[in-house]
Design a protein that fits this description.
By secondary structure, the chain is an alpha+beta fold. The chain has helices at about 5-15, 55-65, 70-85, 95-100, 105-120, 175-185, 190-200, 210-215, 220-230, 260-265; strands at about 1-5, 25-40, 45-50, 85, 90, 120-130, 135-140, 145-150, 160, 170, 235-240, 240-245, 250-255. The strands form 5 sheets. Strands 2-3-4-5 form a 4-stranded antiparallel beta sheet. It has a 3-stranded antiparallel beta sheet with strand order 1-7-6. Strands 8-11 form a two-stranded antiparallel ribbon. The structure holds zinc ion. Zinc ion binds near residues 246 and 249.
Length: about 260
């Protein structure tokens, strides 16, 4: 993270000779943490190719964004199905169902890959200081400024969680499709937890309704334990608040960057 006074930066820019245009990478390889299981050969595909976004993508995403009830996860799917070209030997372009099979951490890694393919390693912003109103140029280093949470389990295996009565429950890692279904069907966090648990639990021979009933029938302590396991186990880059200092008055500036502002801000 670096911060320069914008007037000084503009002055320096005016002094240097016009630089030859350097082409940014138009496509980029991204290594995934869990990857995608290709059902045809039953192999995990661990490496994806993403391309940079262009004006057509911006228009398409802006049109999608104004529709009502579009969740973060749906927007992410829409963006990634345009920009991820392949995952291993699986063609992805335009196929939302493939993107929705990825765990959230892999989707965030792909999103960072799209940012890098589009803007290069450094992403610049203008931020106005709340204290003095001065304008600051802030540069994010997309390689180093995001904390990475490493996987704590083998992501190709299920999670096994022991309940109060000693029963062991097997859970799949939640993917994009799970979080979209849960946020669409559940009106409250409690309802969303029921849907996400029912989608991630492995109960052989049980219907969706049976699994939802199972999730509602769990004791509160067990439910909390399982929900915590599902979400605390999520590896991947963390989009957190970033702190910097105003170049004019030294006041602290806290940036709550979300990924949409990283893309179009
Ligand atoms: Zn200031």
């Amino acid at each position: 993270m670096s911060n320069t006074q914008s007037s000084a930066a503009a002055f320096n820019e005016a002094l240097v000779e016009p630089a030859p245009r350097v082409d940014l990478p138009t496509s980029l390889k991204v290594d995934l943490m869990r990857g995608l299981l290709n059902p045809l050969d039953n192999e995990w595909q661990m490496s994806a190719v993403v391309r940079e976004l262009n004006g057509t993508d911006e228009e398409a995403l802006a049109a999608f964004d104004v529709q009502k009830g579009v969740s973060y996860s749906e927007y992410m799917t829409h963006m990634l199905k345009r920009s991820v070209t392949s995952i291993g030997n699986v063609d992805v372009l335009g196929r939302a169902e493939v993107i929705d099979e990825l765990i959230i951490g892999d989707r965030d890694l792909l999103f960072l890959g799209v940012l890098k393919a589009t803007y290069g390693r450094f992403r610049e912003f203008q931020v106005t200081c709340r204290e003095c109103g001065g304008s600051n140029d802030v540069t994010m280093d997309l390689e180093n400024d995001f904390k990475m949470e490493d996987p704590k389990h083998d992501l190709h295996e299920t999670m096994k969680i022991k309940l109060k009565n000693g029963t062991v429950v097997e859970l799949l890692y939640p993917n994009g499709g799970d979080s979209q279904a849960a946020s669409k069907k559940g009106k409250t966090t409690a309802e969303q937890n029921t849907y996400i648990l029912s989608r991630c639990v492995i109960l052989q021979g049980k219907s969706d309704n049976d699994k939802e009933a199972w999730a509602r029938g769990l004791s509160l302590a067990d439910r909390n334990k399982l929900v915590k396991a599902l979400f605390s186990a999520q590896p991947g880059p963390r989009m957190e608040e970033v702190e910097t200092q105003c170049a004019h008055c030294n006041a602290k500036i806290v940036l709550a960057l979300d990924w949409v502002s990283l893309l179009f801000g």
